[in-house]
Specification:
Helices cover 58% and strands 4% of the residues. The chain has twelve helices and four strands.
Length: 333
């Protein structure tokens, strides 16, 4: 059970309209209610006039889940829920942290605006559409707007995005485990920013399995290259979000490395790094307090005699990335 979870009762079961107190029964009721609603929404073409911002995603979430949850359409910000989730997608335990709940509206609107600069992916080849769809799905997933139901909400949003760009996007063609694994691999960002496409490759491959050109002259016109807009430079808001994500993913891995080093005090130093990363994630101005600590942790790893071999290449890379990200966050904070 998660502390301070105002979406759930005292036993950790989500508050619901049906009076269900068994989590398995509630999960089944949610599926039985939301999947037909998802199918109907997709058939209708999604939320007409949606701009892929907070208002758009909240409307989708409400339509999908209002049959079960009284909080359908509320973001995590409405009940001040933060949360994080573990994943073992790399073979090791990783911590997936989401956008600070206070920033959800700002972030969703920034992502929607960036997508709008690309004309909502109209005019792209199938190859390019899957590449850019992977990028944006990862951005929305990291923001993680809702307590539950993010996956189905994004399925509806990207089905609509595809239709409006001349493509059929059919998530039913893959099993949920494939989507979840690709999503998690993008979240943990094993590869450095200069190799960012490698982090998104599993999501792109996933989209390649579910995307196909929609039939008809109208869809063909939507794919006309004259409609395409070049990928615009990241807005300041998007660039800041990216720097902070880099700090998070590398910071928690640096925490683990330092905490597991032999020697007195290293465990405590590692824990302190983790707490500093969490504080900076929630409030980037905290970087002024923690920057020196982060730099020292990165240097400790890069110079450690036991971390110079090929088996520690990821650790050294993360340390270098962590230091760079910390200095970037200081600049933009």
């Amino acid at each position: 059970m998660v502390a301070n979870d105002r979406f759930s009762d005292e036993n950790g079961v989500r508050l619901n309209r049906l009076g269900i107190t068994d989590p398995q029964a509630l999960a089944q009721a949610e599926t039985d209610s939301s999947l037909p609603r998802l199918e109907r929404l997709n058939q209708m073409g999604g939320i007409q006039g949606g701009r892929y911002d907070q208002a758009h995603l909240k409307q989708i979430h409400q339509k999908l889940f209002e049959g079960v949850y009284q909080w359908a359409g509320e973001t995590r910000a409405d009940r001040e829920f933060q949360g994080h989730k573990p994943t073992y997608v790399t073979g090791f335990k990783e911590t997936m942290t989401y956008a600070p709940h206070k920033e959800i509206e700002q972030r969703l609107n920034a992502i929607g605006a960036q997508l709008g600069k690309e004309n909502n992916l109209k005019g792209l080849s199938e190859e390019k559409f899957t590449e850019r769809a992977a990028y944006y799905l990862d951005q929305y997933n990291h923001t993680h707007a809702f307590r539950d139901g993010n996956g189905r909400t994004l399925q509806a949003a990207f089905t609509q995005l595809g239709k409006e760009a001349g493509y059929q996007v059919e998530f039913s063609r893959i099993d949920p485990a494939t989507l979840n694994r690709a999503r998690d691999e993008a979240m943990v960002r094993q590869h450095a920013p200069q190799d960012a496409q490698r982090n998104l490759q599993p999501l792109k491959v996933m989209f390649q399995q579910i995307v196909s050109p929609a039939p008809g002259a109208a869809a063909e016109q939507l794919r006309d290259p004259n409609q395409a807009r070049q990928s615009a430079p990241l807005s300041p808001a998007m660039a800041a979000m990216d720097a902070r994500r880099e700090l998070e993913v590398t910071g928690y891995r640096v925490m683990d490395v330092v905490a597991n080093m032999p020697g007195a005090g290293n465990y405590e130093r590692g824990v302190a790094v983790g707490k500093g990363v969490e504080a900076t994630n929630l409030n980037p101005t905290a970087i002024t307090t923690h920057l020196a600590q982060f730099q020292q942790a990165a240097e400790k790893i890069s110079k450690h005699s036991g971390l110079q071999g090929p088996d520690a290449a990821q650790d050294r890379s993360d340390a270098k990335r962590f230091r760079t990200a910390a200095e970037q966050v200081q600049t933009i904070a």
